[in-house]
Each structure stands twice: as structure tokens, then as C-alpha cells.
What does this fold into?
Amino acid sequence: MPKCFIDCLKSGDFPMVRIKSVGCVLLALSLLVTGCGGSGGKDGGNKTAEGEVSRDTGTPKRGGSLTILRASDIDGWDLDKAIQLSTFETLPQVMEGLVRPGADGKSIEPGLAESWKLDAKAKTITFTLRPGLTFSNGQPVTSADAAFSVDLWRKGLSLGSLYAAITGTATPDPRTLVIKMNKASTFTLTWLSNGSSIVVPKDFGGMDRKEFFTKPIGAGPFVVASYKPGQQLVLDRNPRYYDAERPYLDRLTYDVVTDPNQQMLRYQSRQADMIEGVPLDLAGQIPENERMPIHPSATIHGVFVNAAKAPGSDVHFRRAVSLAIDRAQYIQAVFGGLAVPATGGLPPRVQGSVGCGCVYDTGVEKAKAELAKSSYKPGTKVELVVDAATPFSTRAGEVVASQLRAIGIDADLQKLEAQVLVDRQMQGNYNLSLGEVSSVSPTVGDIFGLIVATGGLYSGLPMKTISDAFEHLEVAQTDDERAEAVRVAETWIHDNLPYIPMAFPDRLFAVSSKVKGLEVTPFLSYPAHQLWVG
Amino acid sequence: MTSHPLLEVDGLRVAIRRQDTALTVLDGVSFAVGASQCLGIVGESGCGKSLTLRAAMGLLPPGIERTGGKIRLSLQPGAAPSEVQAGQVAGRGLAMVFQDSHASLDPTMRVGTFIAETVRRRGGTSRSDARRQAVELLASVGVPDPKVRFNAYPHELSGGMRQRVAIALALATDPRVLLCDEPTTALDVTLQAQILRLLNTARTERGLGMIFVSHDIAVIRQIADVVAVMYAGQIIEIGTVSDVLDRPRHPYARALIDAVPSIDGPVGPFRSVPGSPPDPIDYGSACRFLDRCGHRDTACEGVVNGIDGREAGHRSACVHNGTLAHGLEAT
Amino acid sequence: MSAGRLHFVVGRLAQVFPVLAALLLIVVLLQQMMPGDPARVIAGPRATAEQVVQVRHELGLDRPIFEQFGRHVSNLLQGDLGTSNRTGIPITTIVGDRIGVTVWLLFGGLLVSTLLAMPAALLMALRPRSRGARICSRALTIIINCPPFWVGLMLASVLALGTGWLPVGGFGVDFGDRVRSMILPSLTIGLAVMPLLARSAAASLSQVLTADHVTTARSLGVSGWPLVRRHLLRNALPPAITLLAIQAAALLFGAVIVEQTFGLPGLGAEMITAASQRDFPVVQALTLIFGLAIIGINLLADLAVALLDPRTTWR
It folds into this structure.
């Protein structure tokens, strides 16, 4: 069974076809709804998965270097601090994990472990490490290092709970690591491919944790040549990497540039070859054949509702808000078409993203009718708080506010600084707010944890159904079981609206013709050892 | 005036330039000053006496320019005065002493250094030589401890001391004529006397010509040989000190002199001339004192101009020219 | 130097310490009052409430304010600026890395603004009715109304991207690179500060031009450049220097904007990042440094004025 399991995950077998067909329906819907050919970048390559453009035209060549721009630096090398997607992307380039995410964003591939098998009850995973593995400093990688690392993940500051199924490890021999779980958690196996599950030397090679994570050593394709926090990260090829051919690049440089205009200038003057995450309102400044959209990304963009106090506590009010939002119009006005209307409350395009087949209806008359059923008194101010930082978020706020006012909700738009906004959300000191949450791994399960931890994305509604659904998801052995669990959660979200999903936004990378071999997952992860200079 | 005058001012006209119009404020002023001679100029504020000096020096403020007349200066001892351009005489033949010494000395320069630099500007003096001469000059104007005071800043000196320094500066340029614009007005009587004495000494010792402008008749009496009375941009009377101050012929001059209270005269009402001088806009060719004059009659309707101060003798611009009765009806 | 001036210098130097202390106290208090929880920022949205409390404890943020302030001051006196809450890097390292950029920028900006402002001021003061002076005045009005980030963007787009002679941003590695990368940012910040400097210097010069002591100097035959140099400038400089020192705050603020616009890794950019992430130790340390810089600039200006004007005394 294990071998088939892997094959099923890797190839486009029956479960995958099911997911693919759902995905195609989603795509078709989105095309219909947006009424245009979709965002740019569909030319200049062949399509592999939905919206992704493969750039594998030619044979990879060894050598060369690339410069990539990001708007903010990683959160640091310590896995405890991993919050941003860029951190999840970068950490494993230096400290590779047991497994890595597949390019389709739903499957896993061998990393430091060349193979794995589950026991009959699927409560134990036995990983076999590759032969002759060494860290970049020449020290061999053994199962003891892996076991030490697993312990670190379990004790992680904010993500530790996602490893809760793991009870312990065993290391029968230097190349074998056994992970013992208290349930048959298939979720855990997929989750192990996320970017914070990094393998480090046992006991940090004798250093103290803080010291180790200023100059981390791993068995990944790259080593840290220099790191100026907040400014620049330079990665050099790891000559001791287990794959003799890769990485193709000699050097990979990440420059932190916060100002979007400066990013554009550097890209256009070829001081940089790629931009991770171009703000959608600047998409037009990139030539079409250099735009790589991740369409859509594994992100939910929605209205968060404080359901702990009036008027958000009334489910009719929440439904009225959902009906008031014309998602198609919203996507056009705010995203310029670079998004897909939300068909569910969980992110799309990762393992388990099946939705519920529910429809997020819209219509002014229906909204007004629903509002009438609620306890909302017309004329009561409803505060909508948004991030003041970008024109994108303020415009989004304005569109939502105007759509709410059109049905008679007196929406009061407040633009707040990012931390003030977070503070208000945490303390339940708001009515409505706008926000986005993303998956960080190939499974939809990691978002369950976030939703539960934040009380339903700051709604304050009871999360029992969601946590119960997660428990089923965790141990689902087949895609059907997984889909069933997710459907329960999605249906509950649709009926109770702890938050109102509006869109699945695209993410946009600017990729010059010099960059080859780029494949980006819906959670913005891309194997950097595959990049080569064209 | 024997031999050549040192300085000759011929028909000086000065106007205020505003946009495209020019408003004449000095109307054909002419006078001359000879060696060791002091010409006093009196008049009330606004009559143009200070402007006359500044015009002669080429130091008119922005917006005011010389529109006519010539200035002639005798550059060598014994030479006849030759025409000079404005802006070429300052510091080279003509020097000026100002009224307000507080603001008129550069606060960032030590006084001795300033004097020494002025000496060096004449040319041909070494730095140490100039220093020595500066110290001598300070001594000659009566500054005690000149070697110490050499290094003083203006704000460290008293008013009287500063005025002495100003005189030393002027003398440092080795001028032919010294122009004094109310230099004692801001000083108390004792100091005043000292400064006047100092100026007199400088004049006689160096054979300088001097023009002394003041509104204080008593001071003029002390220092001047010849007095010119100015009114509304013109000289309206000129003559020796005793002539003009004891026997004024022009009704205005008479009123001016009578207005000075005397310590040993009868105590009576303060006699001032009613009204005020005409606005330069209203300057015409008729007698400018007409409206205020108590002796107006039909003869005054004639055209009257200011007088040429270079001609000898005691003359006045009034058509009645001294034939009026002494005294003035108080109105 | 006379007693009065010496007195002034000593008094002025002594004044620095109470000002600095007040600055520190204000910064600490302000940060306590700011909404936003640094522990939450570090722990992330998935952390539980207990985990956030744990982080807060590790950062020492649950201690009373005065204990935190006391510890902060005692560290300062030992030369320790603290460590960044977010990255754990000692702040002295961060400052050391980034201060060079900011100093280059400020120096370049000052150079550009002085080089542009002085001739303009001289022209407007000495030849006020000439065509050149009128063109100058209008140009200054236009410049003062252009926001620095726009000017920077335009310069970068046209002069850097358009021609390829200069880099569009970044600091560069070797000396030559760095000089080239500083040209446009210095120009941007210099243009921002220049109009006020030119206008105030011109006003100061005009005022001095009609001053009595200038008339005296002219009456003694001083004219032309010696007059300007010796009697005008030396008297006109003190008010201009004072105004420039007041502008120092504007210069630092402009530096922050220009660093963002050109992607320069300086202290200003760091300040913005740290403030938005509620990294208190970094914000405090940088505020201290900026405050010291402004205090220092004002001190230097006052001392320069004391040097130039012998009438200075301590009141």
C-alpha cells in the first residue's frame, strides 16, 4: 500500500483526477464570471496545472546567479519565528526537511528522506534517509539529527500544535527514522513537507540555539554566504548537496526592497531578475510575458466579522453582508480581475480543497430581505476597519463599504495602521474588517489550526464543528474521507459565516526571461535548486 | 574761499524711483567746501541734508538715485577739483562719520583690525606698519589704552568710544573732505563737546574740508564756518555762521533759529512753525515755504528757486530777502 | 574668547543632558501608550494566548515601566543599545551596519543643498531685480512644492532607468559604486532642503546689505567681493546657520523618505520597519540616535554662531 500511496500522490491517478476536475470547474467558473480571458501571462509557456506557466524551455545549464526581490525579509532562521510565506520558502533551501512539497501544491516528494512507509495501522511512518547525506559543513546527517529536529518542531512556538499527533521518535539505525503517532494521521505526513520542518544537526552541533540560527547549517541545496537582516541574503551553492546536478545556480541573492516603485525600477533596470509578490495594482507595469500569476493562490480574502457582539452576533446580519457583496464586481474593482470569486471558506488548490458545492449567493434584494430579518437597526454605525498601508486595501475597504451601504448598512470605513488593526481584531474591538489568510503547506489542514486558534478568524464563534472536522481530516486515509471532513467544515462555514469569504486572490511574480525552471505552488513555495539562468 | 575748493557740488538732483516714476527729493543743490573749512547744513528732518551727503559719497540707499548734477573733488593738494563719478569717491578722498555708531561698526570685527585694514587699503603699507598706524590713530582720537583697545569689539566699547573709532576709521582713509552726518546727536553734552573738539583738531591739523550736518543749531554754531539752511530739498539761505544764525533773512531760517529755546531768554510759549514741510510730490517751482509763511504777499507769486551755495556772501532764496521785519507773529 | 562667549559654550554644552534625558523618557512612555503588542507580532497569529504571555515574559515586557526604563538607561551607560526583539541581533550591530548609509546620504544632501542654495541666495540678494534672480525665485517655488518621494522617483526613472548611467537604488559594494548610488538620493534630499535654505540666506543677506555697518564699510571704500566676504557673509551667516539647524529635523525626516524611495539600507528605513513591528528596543535606540543627531547639529550650529558673532552671551 505505501508504494501505491506515493505513486497515487505523485501521478495523476484517480483521486487527483477528481481534484483536477473540481479545479477545472473552478477555473471555468472564474473565467465565466470575470468575463475576460483572465489575467495576463497565459502566453509564453505551456500550462501544466491551473494557471501555472512552466518555463522549462531548454536544457538546464550549470552556473550563473540570480537576484530576487522581496518586500520584507524572512522572519529569521529559527523555525519558531516562521510566520511569512517567504520564510517557509527560504528556510528549507538551506536546511532541507525530510520531504518537500510537490510542484502542484498538493503532494509531497522525497527530500532528505528517499522513501517512507507506513505501518499497517498507519500510526508509524518509517523514513529512510538517503545514503551518504552530509550537512554543508561535512558532518554526516543521521537519524539522530532528524529525531532532534522532529522534537524541535513539536515544541514550536506557534506551529507546534500541528505536530500534535506525533508522540515520539525512534532511530533504529543511522539512516532510519521512525515517527510514532497517536493516530493514523495522514495530515501529519503531508504537513511534514512545510517549510518550517527543517532538519538541523543534533543539539545544534554544540552551539546554543540563538547562535546556531544566526549562521544556520543544513543539508539543503544552498548555504548562507552572507546575511544582512532586513537588507540582503546571499545563498551560495552547497557543494555537498545530495543531488550532484543541482542546484544549477552558483548564487542566489535575495534583496529586501520595501517600496514597490523601487522594486519596479530595479526589475526594469535589470538590477533584479525576479520579484516575489508584485502588488496586484502594479501588474500593468510588467510586460505580459514576464508576468507569472499564481491563479489563484491558496489564500482566502474575506470580511472578518466580530460575532461576539451586535450586529455581527446575528447570523442574519452576517448573511446579509455576504449577500450584499457582489463578488464579481468586487474582484474587478479591487483586484483588476486578478482573483477568483470565493466558492468556499478554505483555501483552494491544496490537498483537500474540495469546497462544499455550496453557493455564496449575491443580490441586493436578497440582502435587504435578509437584513430585515436581522436585529440590525438601520442607522446604526457599523465600523469596517482596514489596513491603511496600501492603496489596494483602502480601495477594497471602499468597495465593501459602498456595497454594504447599498443595502442599508451604515458602514463606517476606518483605515488603521497594521498593528493597530491586529490589536483591535485580537481584542474583539471591531465590527467588520478585511483580511487574508493563506495556507503554508500542501494540505488544507494547516488552515484549520489557524481558524481555530483565532476563534474563527476573530469572530468569536464556537469552533467545535471545525475542530471536530479537523480531527476527521487528520486521520482520513483516502481522498474521499478527506473530502467528507472538509465538506463538513465548509458547510458549517457557509451556514454560519464566522467570516465571509469573498475571493481567492492571485499572487503575481515578475519573472524576467533570464529565470528558468520556476514552478510556484499555490502557497508560494518554489524549489530554488531547480532554477537556472537562461 | 581762497584758492580752489576741495569739494564742489553742482546742481545735485536726487530722486526716489518707484516703478517707472521718479520723485525728485533734492532739487538742484550746489555748494563748495575749501581746505580747513567747515560747512554746516541745518534743516528739519526730511529736508534732504543727509541725502545730500550720501549722494556726494555715492551711498544712496536702494531705490534712490542721483538724477542730475556733478560732483568735483580735488584729489591732489593744490589741484583744481575734477569731476568724479559716484561710487568712486567713498574712501578715496571723501570719508563719512555717521550718527549711530552702535550699528555702524561691524560687530564681528575688532576695531583695531578694521582700522588697520582701512589703512592698508590705501596701498603701500605692510601689515605691521598698518597696525602701528592704527594704534596711533586710536590714540589721536583720544581712545585711552589704544594698544589694548585695538583688540576690542564694538559692543565692548561705550558710545563715545565707538564714535571716536568711527572718526579714526574715516581719518584712516586719508580723506580730503570729511562728511559728518549728525555724529553727536546720540551723545550727551559732555561727550558732544569732546567729539566736536576732536573734529576741529583733525580739521585744522590735516587741513581737511568738512561738511557737518545737524539739526542742532548750537552745535553748528560751535563747529561751522559757513552755514547753509535747507528746506524741502533746496538750500534757501547761506552765509557765515554769524550772518545766518544772528541775522537770518529767510522767514524759515528765522523761524528755525527762533525756535531754539535759550537758557537766558525770556520764558514764553514754545515757538514752533505751524504746519509741516510739503510732500516731495507737491514740490513745485514756487516758494515751498509759502503755505507756512506768515509774510506771504503778492510778490511771492513769482518763481523762486533755491540758491547756488557757491556764490559768495550772505544770500537767501526769499524774494523779500531780509527786508521783512524781525520777529514772527505767533499763530 | 571673551568671558561671555565661553560662558555661552559651557552653558550650551551642559544643556544637552537634561534634553537627552527628557527625550529618552518620552520615547519610553510613548511606546507604552502605543496600541499594538510586540509579543503578539513575534508569536504570530497562530500562537495561543499562553504562548504570547511566554514571549512577553521572555522579552521582559511584563515588568513595570520604570524597571524597564531603569534597565534601559543602565545598559545605555555601559554602551549597550540592547537587542532587537524580532531578530535578536544586538542593536549596536544594526546601527553599525546602517549608519554609514544615512551619514553618506545626509552629507551628500547637505553638500548638494549648500552648493545649490548659496549661489541662488547670492544672486537673489545682490541682484534682486535681474532676470536670473526672478527665474531663481520661481524655480524655488516650484521645487519646494514637489514632494521628495516624487522627485526621487522621477530622477530614478529618468536619470537612472532611462540612461543606465546611475543605479536606480541600493547602496553598492565598493567605494565607486557607493558614490554613484548616492548621487540621485543626495540630489533628491538636497533639492528638498535647498529652497528654504536659499530663501533664508537671501533674506539674511538682503537684511545685512542695508545694514549700517555695510554702509560704513562702503564709505571706507570696501566694495565687490571683499565687501561680500568680509562684511556681508560673516554677519549674514548666523541666522542662516540657525535656520539650517532647525531644518536638521526636516533633513532627517527627508532621509527616511529618500531611503525608502531608493531602497537604501539606512537608519531611517530601519526605523520605519521597527516601528511598524513594534520592535521597542530598536525604536528607542534609533530615536536616541536621531535625537542625539539633532541635538548635536543644533549644538554645532550654536557654537558656530558663537564663533562668528562676538556678541554672543549666555542668558
